[in-house]
């Protein structure tokens, strides 16, 4: 999921003018080396796409079971998370095709849609993870309220999440344009998906994306799991002498390890 600088976005879904110029001047071993790297990258992406599609499709299949339907909102969140992953994975074949063709073949609409899907699915996935963390916290803090929570409420929250993700993605969709570029007089015309941001505007947009997709959701998830850990410890303390000190210490360590692992996994992604 790419939300870095313009020079990173351009090669992903288009064709960098610098790459075209360099490619037209290389020959022999350099061309074969570049083809080998492109082939390895393409094969890796296709493998990731295949595994991801298989895993998320399997998730959608098993979530149709009656037992999971009774989980209410969590059932809806799992489905939407899998759909978000599938939507993102659907862009990989277009990226691989662009790497091999050294040209953008899918028109201006393809530029706007495919690059926007990257940001759309990123925000949707992050917001759904926050909603799932909140649901898990409520299941511990207010179990009866969560039991009454229906899948209808989950669908409403999921709809709000997708709407908010679309609003945050819309500026990128509007500011991407398809441009044609001719590296040399003898070469053919190449196409490139090019952001039309000013440097100041792009920096401001990336700052907003950092807060909405990384910092704020990450802090919320950390806060929720720290709250979960505190509630587990409080419940453990209420048990008093019913369990031995060594058992309480082991349970506390497992809670800390689980919370730390979840937080690290989120920030590493």
TrEMBL record:
It holds the Pfam family 7tm_1. GO terms for biological process: blood vessel diameter maintenance; neuropeptide signaling pathway; regulation of blood pressure. GO terms for molecular function: urotensin II receptor activity. Residues 55-269 form the G-protein coupled receptors family 1 profile domain. Its main location: membrane. It is found in: Cell membrane. The chain crosses the membrane at residues 35-62, 74-101, 113-134, 155-178, 204-229. Belongs to the G-protein coupled receptor 1 family. This is Urotensin-2 receptor. It comes from Channa striata (Snakehead murrel).
């Amino acid at each position: 999921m790419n939300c870095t600088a313009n020079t990173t976005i351009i090669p992903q879904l288009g064709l960098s003018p610098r790459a075209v110029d360099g490619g037209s001047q290389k020959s022999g071993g350099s061309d074969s080396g570049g083809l080998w790297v492109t082939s390895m990258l393409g094969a890796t992406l296709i493998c990731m796409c295949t595994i991801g599609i298989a895993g998320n499709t399997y998730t959608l299949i098993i979530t149709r079971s009656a037992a999971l339907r009774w989980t209410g909102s969590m059932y809806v969140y799992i489905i939407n998370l899998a759909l978000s992953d599938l939507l993102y994975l659907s862009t990989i074949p277009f990226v691989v095709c662009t790497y091999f063709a050294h040209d953008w073949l899918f028109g201006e609409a393809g530029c706007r849609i495919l690059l926007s899907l990257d940001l759309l699915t990123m925000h949707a996935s992050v917001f759904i993870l926050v909603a799932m963390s909140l649901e898990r916290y409520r299941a511990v803090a207010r179990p009866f309220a969560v039991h009454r929570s229906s899948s209808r409420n989950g669908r409403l929250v999921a709809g709000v999440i997708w709407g908010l993700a679309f609003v945050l993605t819309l500026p990128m969709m509007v500011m991407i344009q398809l441009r044609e570029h001719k590296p040399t007089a003898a070469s053919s015309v190449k196409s490139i998906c090019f952001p039309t941001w000013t440097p100041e505007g792009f920096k401001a947009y990336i700052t907003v994306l950092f807060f909405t997709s990384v910092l704020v959701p990450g802090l919320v998830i950390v806060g929720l799991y720290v709250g979960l850990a505190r509630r587990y410890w409080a419940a453990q303390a209420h048990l008093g002498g019913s369990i031995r000190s060594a058992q309480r210490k082991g349970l506390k360590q497992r809670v800390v390890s689980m919370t730390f692992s979840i937080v690290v996994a989120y920030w590493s992604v």
